[in-house]
Amino acid sequence: MKKSTFRSTDWFEPTTHHAFVSRSWLKGRGHPQQMFDGKPVIGICNTWSDLNPCNAHLRILAESVKNGVYEAGGFPLEFPVMSLGETLMRPTTMLYRNLLSMDVEESIRANPIDGVILLTGCDKTTPGALMGACSVDLPTLVITGGPMLTGRYRNRKIGSGTDVHRFYTELRAGNITEEDFREAESCMTRSDGHCMTMGTASTMACMVEAVGLTLPTGAAIPASDSRRRNLAHQAGNRIVKLVQEGIKLSDIVTRNSLENAIKVNAAIGGSTNFVVHLIAIAGRLGLPLDLNDFDRFGSHMPLLVNLMPSGKHLMEDFYYAGGLPAVLRELADELHNDCPTVSGYSLGANVADAKCHNRDVIASIDSPFQEAAGIAVLRGNLCPHGAIIKPSAASPERLQHRGRAVVFESLEDHRARIDDPSLDVDENCVLVLKGIGPKGFPGMPEFGKFTLPKKLLKKGVRDMVCISDGRMSGTAFGTIVLHVAPEAAVGGPLALVQNGDFIELDVPGRRLSLEISDHELQLRRQAWHAPEPRATRGYVGIYVDHVLQADRGVDLDILVGNSGAVGPHPFT
Q1: Where residue 489 sits, what CATH number does that domain have?
Q2: Do the bridges between strand 41-46 and strand 75-80 make them parallel or antiparallel, or are there none, so unpaired?
Q3: Residue 564, burial from CB neighbour count under 10 angstroms (0-12, 13-18, 19+)
């Protein structure tokens, strides 16, 4: 047998009891002896599940990856991990993002894997899988499942998530019937793939392309387009080369590539969830990254991509217009173009010949869709550790606003009172929802885009300033202040807001202020009592005990950093 220097050598090449078992049982699956003769083992980490419709086609994509691995002289072994389906999973997939990362980390570390391809798609599967891979730090490449084809309803485009909010609002306002509502839901989801708006799934796909972890064009190819299977085959080729060349994940994801990702996220109008995910990924690699970096590198960037929820087009249009390579080329003067990528070329070299084919979808940097539209980080006595807002999805006239607080102490309180005709509220009020942060809910759900009072909807009101310690879907829109830290459940100032208080939002000034004195705030704090935790056992109990706040990525404190690829008891 030819002696190799791969990590899998310890499993397959020695003449030992353990190697006998490892080889024999795999031979029982039809793998011949030559697969153990010095070939790099490529783990195909698959988040496929029937319970996750966005990722239900990943088994087919895995076959293309395997073909590419075999062709390049590798040994592909597919393995499943927990799949987080945004559309079905309750109470929120964010509660389980860190559990997925643990599953991925330990599955890779415990098995004879030399390099890994992460097959992801739906929102949390991409950051969760990547966080786990970061903690092992082997050669890694990501292939996302791709967006759905454009939805069509009565001869107009509709976008997943974004138009769900619109249809539900109009249903509550009495402007459409339940039959209209059900017809729309049948028209929206018409192919394999994740949301075709610039929601979190598309944002994360763009993020992995921007940091160099997927092959060029990988973010936007529609799921049902044969070119995605072609890309998966090429990814199988490339991961073998990355292993042979010893190029680890941490060689690709660097401080410079994270800065690139922040700028790109602003230019595409990406999801606010990008913030907590990128901070968590950086934390796994030991790279410095905090909220100030998002304001410093992203808030001044122009919005180039005219996609829902900030614009009107969808991901299929984005791909045909040139996809992310066209955006990266427009941003060339703003980016670290020398960053390495899994293609074997630098980021700049990857997109040197990229072209835009539709300026209505991808604007030039000299004539952007919107100016300075990146995520803004707010500070003030209401959010001493920060809060965020997405100006490109907000109503411009509300970005500077002062209003009377209407407070909901919990999601249950909101649901019980929001449609009460006697609720003392008008369109100039500021709606405040507590208790949907990382510990308080627990899991920090996407309820930051909460429903407006029905009596105001009937008057035609479609946006108000809303503030919470939760998140919102990347497909959502509105003047929504999110990720308030510290959260209400741990005694952050949000917990102390009362009905009738005045709150001032000043996005240009980066301020979010509760207009009460420090003395009054202190008196309220002394009278405040922490709520009982909603869970004490199992994974959720561990989560509540160890989860970090939004400004630190909502990772578990016990998972920050990494342990590398060698397990505690390797066989030699």
Answers
A1: 3.50.30.80
A2: parallel
A3: exposed
Q: What is the span of the domain harbouring residue 19?
A: 1-39
Distance CA 416, CA 411 (A): 9
The count of C-alpha atoms lying within 13 angstroms of the C-alpha of 117, restricted to the half-sphere facing its C-beta, is 37
DSSP annotation string for 508-546: TTTEEEE-S-HHHHHHHHHH--PPPPS--SHHHHHHHHH
- Binned at pLDDT 50, 70 and 90, residue 2 comes out as very low
Q: Which of 131, 351, 118, 340 is nearest to 236 (CA)?
A: 118
- The tokens describing 70, both together, are 């075999």
Model pLDDT, residue 568: 55
Residue 240 lies in a domain: no
Yes or no: say if 202 and 196 are a contact pair by the CB < 8 Å rule: yes
pLDDT in tens, 492-518: 999 999 999 999 999 999 999 999 999
Q: What string of DSSP letters covers 157-175?
A: EE-TTHHHHHHHHHHHHTS
Give per-residue pLDDT as tens, 348-359: 999 999 999 999
CA angle 155, 156, 162 (to 5 degrees): 145
DSSP structure string for 124-156: THHHHHHHHHHTT--SEEEEE--BPPPEEETTE
Q: CA-based Rg of the chain, rounded to a whole angstrom?
A: 24
Q: What is the largest CA-CA distance in the chain?
A: 81
Residue 8 lies in a domain: yes
The H-assigned helical ranges of 143-290 are: 162-173, 178-188, 200-210, 226-245, 249-252, 255-268, 273-285
By the 8 A CB rule, do 267 and 305 touch?
A: yes
As for how many domains the chain has, the answer is 2
Tokens 């479609």 belong to 462
| pLDDT at residue 562, as a whole number | 84
d(CA 495, CA 441): 14
Residue 398 in any domain: the answer is yes
236 located within any domain: no
Two tokens, residue 251: 């060689």
- Region class of 39: left (phi > 0), else alpha (psi between -120 and 50), else beta: beta
Residues whose CB is less than 8 angstroms from the CB of residue 96 and which lie 6 or more positions away in sequence, other chains included:
82, 84, 89, 124, 128, 443, 539
Structure tokens at 280: 């968590």
Which H or E run contains 59? Answer: helix 58-71
In this prediction, residue 569 carries a pLDDT of 57
* C-alpha neighbours within 13 Å on the C-beta side of residue 205: 36
Cis peptide bond prior to 453, omega within 30° of 0: no
End-to-end CA gap in the chain: 17
Strand order in 41-46's β-sheet? 75-80, 41-46, 115-120, 140-144
Secondary structure, 3-state, 375-390: CEEEECCCCCCCEEEC
- Residues 19-67: tens digit of each pLDDT: 999 999 999 999 999 999 999 999 999 999 999 999 999 999 999 999 9
Q: What average pLDDT does the segment 325-329 reach?
A: 98
How far does Cα 159 stand from its chain's mean position?
Answer: 18
User: Cα dihedral sign for 27, 32, 33, 37?
Assistant: negative
